[in-house]
């Protein structure tokens, strides 16, 4: 069985003629991934997810889901995909179980499956409580239970952490992790806040103004973070210091000398080299990039 669950190639989309909303989106989600699809508001996440779910018609490029071309195998493919893209219509006057019962027949799921998904999302003991009395986190988990009824292989969640309090985010994160581990479900999760998904995803795609700016493992993003960490220096002779530190890819930026570094031991070596070359160090300031600053750098002009 193919290990690629979603592959898009040269996916483009325009709502308005002449105005590109998506340009050449190449998304690759592998079986077993929890893939974080990140980008600021308006960058094109929902448009991409809508195309993947056949809610918008592909104008250019290809979408392959579970090894099949979406355009030619739409029904067959989407049967194996669950989603939470617009808030699903939950009935406020019904209990969690009654809500699931409404959808159970549509999805052809068994009563045992209904009870199973209630257990999975931790709502089996809500009894006679109606959805009106549910917290946002509970509603979100009930919506996920609905999406789980047909036993999907892939779940696509659009901004599932939106509006949740920290406890709700933690619950959702642990639910997603356990569904991934225990039920083998692959996830594609969009968010505009890196820190809210960073702790649960293994792969990341970053989109900005309709273009992919990064795609890779969380480890690769960390590598980028390390590569972009800089030590800022001021010495008695910055030009000579620059020559001494050339092999570290030192650069002169205006008056300052900046040198990329990966760990603090390297900063100590840089300092020693300057002193050994009779240069006085007036200022040495390591500026470690955070994942958040990398994300911001990738999603600004
Ligand atoms: N139905 C529509 N008609 C015209 N333009 C649209 C439509 N839906 C979205 N857009 C525009 O397409 C661009 C991408 O929007 P999209 O909703 O895909 O972004 P997003 O990353 O999901 O943002 P958000 O986090 O705000 O939902 C935006 O400029 C948006 O204004």
From TrEMBL:
ABC transporter domain span: 6-234
Coiled coil: none
Alphabetical list of Pfam families matching this protein: ABC_tran
Keyword Transmembrane helix: no
Presence of keyword Nucleotide-binding: yes
Cross-referenced InterPro entries: AAA+_ATPase (IPR003593), ABC_transporter-like_ATP-bd (IPR003439), ABC_transporter-like_CS (IPR017871), P-loop_NTPase (IPR027417)
GO molecular-function term, one example from the UniProt record: ATP binding
PROSITE patterns cross-referenced by the UniProt entry: ABC_TRANSPORTER_1, ABC_TRANSPORTER_2
Keywords: ATP-binding, Nucleotide-binding, Transport
Superkingdom classification of source: Bacteria
SMART domains recorded: AAA
SUPFAM superfamilies: P-loop containing nucleoside triphosphate hydrolases (SSF52540)
Family in the record: Belongs to the ABC transporter superfamily.
Full protein name: ATP-binding cassette domain-containing protein
Species, as recorded: Chryseosolibacter indicus
